Amino acid sequence: MSVLEVENLTKTFVAEKSKILVLDNVSFSVGNDEFVCLVGPSGCGKSTLLRIMAGLEKADSGMILFHGQPIVQPTPKIAMIFQLFGLLPWKTALENVEVPLEVLGTEKEKRIRIAQEYLKMVGLEGFEDTYPHDLSGGMKQRVGIARALALKPEVLLMDEPFSSLDELTAKTLRELVLKIWVDPNLPTNTFMMVSHNVEEAVFMADRVIVMSPRPGKVVGEVKIGIPRPRLEHSRSPLYFELVDEVLELLEKSKRAQ
Amino acid sequence: MRKYTISFVVGSAALCVMAWLIMTLVKYPEIKYLPFYTFSTVFRIVITLVISVVWGVSFGVLAATNRVASLILTPFIDLLQSIPILGYFPLVIGFLFALGPLGVELSVILLLFTSMAWAIFFGVLGAIRGIPTNVVESARSFGLTGWRYIRHVVLPAIAPAVAAGANLAWCDGWFFMIAAEYIQFQGSIVTPPSGGLGYLLAKAAYYYKDIILSSVLLLFITFIVLFFNTLTWHRLMERANTGTFKPILKIDLSGIGKLGVAKISSWPPFGRLHWPKSFSIASQRLRKYSHIERILAVALAFSAIFFVFYMVVGKLPTFGMIFEEFNKPPAGELGALPVLIALTIGRLAIAYGISLVVAIGLGVLATGHKKAAAVIYPLYDIGQGVPILALFPVIFLGLNQVLSSRMALELTCIIMLVLDMIWYMFLNILSGIKNIPTEIKEVGQLFGLKGLKRITHMVIPSILPSIVTGSILSWGTGWNTIIFAEYMPSTEPTIPPLSVPGLGSLLDKAGYEYGNTVLLVFILGIIAAIVLSMEGLVWRPLLRKFEKYHIEV
User: Could you say which of 3.20.20.150, 3.40.50.300, 3.40.1280.10, 3.60.15.10 is the CATH number of the domain covering A2-77+153-256?
Assistant: First the structure.
């Protein structure tokens, strides 16, 4: 059964008096426990789609259903992590995780306990009182992940979460995210990631949805049948075949323009 | 181009009609010279502007590209710019006495120069230092050196800074015009033989005490400033902003996928005016000096003071001569110095508090509500254009109708300070709010931060660094303004000038009434000490503390 349902989504932006169509009639669905990755060339509207999903922007027509209800505003059930982390620079790691809990009305002691627990889970024990300024990029994204998970959301949205990190750090964090996804103790089990890195998408996702250059349309999807844990199969012939398949779809959509 | 011609024609016509109306309706004898006075003031400021630009660009390029020059020039010029206009009086008086009428004209230009030139110099310096390393390196790799490097890299890079700095100098020129064209010295008034609008306004306010004429003249002056602003600077700024390094950065930040962001960030019309200066200068100034440079600056300052003494007295002063000056008036008031300092700081603090609160309110309103913004931005544009110093006599005359002159001056002083300080605060707070990155705003939206929580968790912390830079600038300009705001010149030798007790008015008495150079320098030294210790004890630690709040993108 599907958790998220994208139905005929269309979105235009107005820039300098001219209208630019960024999403053109996009439809797909994301099932429970599924890890879906959206790939496409830059500017194809995939980040916009994610923002509509998070309730940060509104579609011109069409809608996104979450358990059958249209998403009109942000909800704690859907959390998001950002490409540039989106941490508040004037708050420590702990306080950054606390803020959304405070908004939900969690009392002080409880939210400190929760924040500590999640920071520990992402491997940041001992850095609770450090400001983002003094954390490395990878550590900042760890805080971002802890902050998202602390709300116990059902869905985790990720907007190119590893693209501003170096490759080694990105690799470690990808494994951390996959570990969180399979963790039976966490309620967060539907993941939706936007990426322009095909290898990353094939490595992580159950299904890769490919979008065309602007205006963004779904041009196809590839089911990734590689057994998990993926790390053991990441150099298998099947992996490279699937990467090629996704790249082929991207190429085709580019030629069609 | 057509729009430009139309605004030029309509504006000039309006100006002529205004001048004609004033000339026919007002009865004082000086008024028939209004067109000539207008011309001579504009001409004077334009000449000074040209000198300032030439000086600022050449010295700025020199200081930015030559290490030795930088070591000597930068701290020295920074010191000069922090001396209020009155500090240059001894120098000017030397001119006045030596060269007759021509000397007076030259000294007015010199005085204007001392308040106009610095912004251009520091703008140029900042712009050259801000050229990205990759651009410098690629230019080097193509073999661009010497003059060709300056022509192809440096000059295009400084164009916007020169335009912005010249605009600032232009506004400063109008600001100080009234102080420069109406010099009071030991009971007599010295004005340039060719007259000027500042002289006319001072005469209307101080001599005729005619509030209507003063207000009309003030309107006239403000209109001229705004007219020139829209005619030249706005266009220049638009043109200068293309083809520099800044827009490249802008494209990087907004990206292709975030068209919405790009639109919002280019929305308000003021980005092209003023704020590169207010932002960069303060933070640059607070960071750039090493100890050696400071020591060097102090040494240079001492030799400069020495030089001034030499010019005034005609020979090198001995210690005995200096001490003797301490016994001449207004030295008697030195006993009350702590009280005077407290009073002046109190006035500044009140004005600062008002400016801070109002500026935060206006900033939040202007960024949050489009309708409010539609009112506040034009208000800002006009408020920037009014030469505040010219407002002084008008406000005083107005308040004097209902209050005793002492109370009126006290109130005028604080109003002046607020009007002067508030724009720096507002501009910095605005840029602080606007520079909150989209991702941070989205985080707030995502987690449902609203109302008071949004303000305490996001808005206030994100503007704290801007509040500090704004504070440094507004206190700086406040110290400069209070020297004029505590003291009301009079025209007849029989009537003593009106003043409220304070450090500023003491300085004025020493400078204007008694010509006591030693005391003048002494009080300037006290002011400098207060400004420096506030910088060191309050602003610098705060700036360092908030540095990590700075959002990296």
Answer: 3.40.50.300
